[in-house]
What we know:
Layout: H1 2-18, E1 23-24, E2 27-28, H2 68-72, H3 76-90, E3 100-104, E4 120-124, H4 131-146, H5 152-161, H6 166-169
Amino acid sequence: MRSIRRFASATTALALASAGLLLTTGSAHAATCSQSRLPLPDQVCTPGAFNPDVTQSTIDSTICVPGWTKTVRPPVSYTTPLKIKQIGQYGYSDTNTADYEEDHLVPLELGGAPRDPKNLWPEPRYGDQPAASKDSVENKLKTAVCNGDVALDDARNAIATDWTTALSKVGIG
């Protein structure tokens, strides 16, 4: 197990180095994004982005169709290198990729842009409100949108602004 962890650390360090970042004493230099808003992403680096194919008039053929997100979810061959790059941009001292979910700020369930780096960020799996905490918010918002209780744009804007208050902002939490 120890050799696997060493291999994972070495692989991450190599990937960070190839991305033009320097790994020293456990932290990546060249951080350009702030961690000050955690559990929220830096608004400048990760403002969110929408999939233009998903609109209020298309939800019945897109996000409200069971399994639709599988058709647009980017592969790990795309998200893992982006996660490694963004871990460096956020300056996380923990560079273990398993400790982060490469998360869509505006979730695919609400028509977030699948591959736009402005909509993806390395969300920590630890802390007071880890990445898994956001999943229930996403699901409740999607249900409300598909039931006609909340407009798509209202749900998207609420979660992009602050996922921790999104439910109350749209009046369902």
